[in-house]
Design goal:
Blueprint: E1 3-4, E2 22-23, E3 28-30, E4 42-43, E5 45-46, E6 54-56, E7 59-63, E8 71-75, H1 83-89, H2 92-96, E9 104-105, E10 111-114, E11 119-123, E12 128-131, H3 134-140, H4 144-149, H5 163-171, H6 177-184, H7 193-200, E13 208-210, E14 213-217, E15 222-226, E16 239-241, H8 244-253, E17 269-271, E18 278-280, E19 290-292, H9 297-306, H10 313-321, E20 326-329, E21 337-340, E22 344-348, H11 356-374, H12 382-404, H13 415-429, H14 431-441, H15 443-447
Parallel strand pairs: 1-16, 9-17, 20-22
Antiparallel strand pairs: 2-5, 3-19, 4-6, 6-7, 7-8, 9-10, 10-11, 11-12, 13-14, 14-15, 15-16, 17-18, 21-22
Helix pairs in contact: 9-11, 10-11, 11-12, 12-13, 12-14, 13-14
Amino acid sequence: MPQNSTGQAGRGWLRRSRAVALGLGLIVAVAASSTAAAAEPEVDTAKHGAPVAIVVPSGRFYPGLGEDGAGFGVRNFADGPRFFDAFVRYGGVDVMGYPSSRPWIGPGGFIYQLTQRALMQWSPDEQRVQLANIFEILREAGYDDALYARSIPRTEPDDSTSLADARAVRMGWMTDAAITQAFLANPIEVESVDAAIELHGLPMSYPETFGPFVVQRFQRTALQHWVEAVDGGQPVGTVVLVNSGDHYKDLLLGDSPVVAPHAHDDTRMLDRRDGEEVYAATVLATATERTYNVVDDTLAEALRLLEGVPSAAPGLKAAAEYSAPIRFRSLAPNVFASFTAPSRIAVSRALQDERLEAVAAVLAHELQHLADFHDQQYVPSEAACFEAEIRAVTAEASAWASLMGPTGVESPQSALERMENARLQAVQAGSETVRALVEDGWAEQCSQHH
């Protein structure tokens, strides 16, 4: 995926943000109820600089953007936007930048939240979060000249009469090879044009040179390709994301309280409909509070994803109740994860760079074993071993379908994703098929219980 920049794309080329990779403390609270919001939050260990993320109910909070620890959070809300899930899907801080507003309600009940590089939008009809066409919004508001002064190209005319025509025409505007490569290297699915368009939108301009870099404007982002060396600039050949959200904030939000940093336990939205700005109370997405014994951010995020999977609830409950250590470990090459009674779960280090949903599915398998053990369903026999694995594979497939859809991932990118698709298909084919899969895959392991 492309690297990132902050500030305006014009004279702001001399400024650059520090990307942040989040590491969690020893015991991390994942997905808690709003009743716990006033509790003192737990601070992540920042690997690359401030602001440090704080684990808060249903998301993360980034202090240090205002006085006395004020900042902005990104969270999931009940019966409303799951902004934190979308934030993670679109690459988190490394791609989206830090959140730079509280959520607000706009005309038609649409709910928005701004980050440095994007505007998240929740639709009440579709009940999902996607990225808003931030540069179309600014064009319609009459800011094309102001954007050009900030080194964002003006829009090209497009006489297309259909979305398919517009896509064909506009994709032909991508004449800068480095920008095209960065466009395709998106965090959703690398090399997928559809996924790239989901993140960036369609081109709104040809690439245009501004001083030491070339910029191409898209509906949702702008990409900046550095072609000349300047003091304080990016290395030649680097492609960075322009801070589109900062442009939106400067030009449209002004001094609105929606962009005023706030305390970590302030989860209110701002209702900006009808020309007024009124604070509205919110309810966070989860109704339970669980704390997991986990130190790896990837595993913590995977557990949080499983909080939204009903079939994973027994395993999550057991993991929290027994403070089960869940860790990345070095395992045999053909082993993705393991459960060791009474409560230890190990996940192969080889999975650290896998899709988060796939890691969650693997965890769902082991969490089912954990729940079975503490429900006293473990019996030392070959037949019982097969039954336990059938339950675990079924839980794994259920999580994969819940997170990725009823057919799994459309274009699997790894052996793990292909395996998850295969296990989902086996479960969907019926009990005989999943039993055959388990008896073939776990024959040696279960024979040890004979």
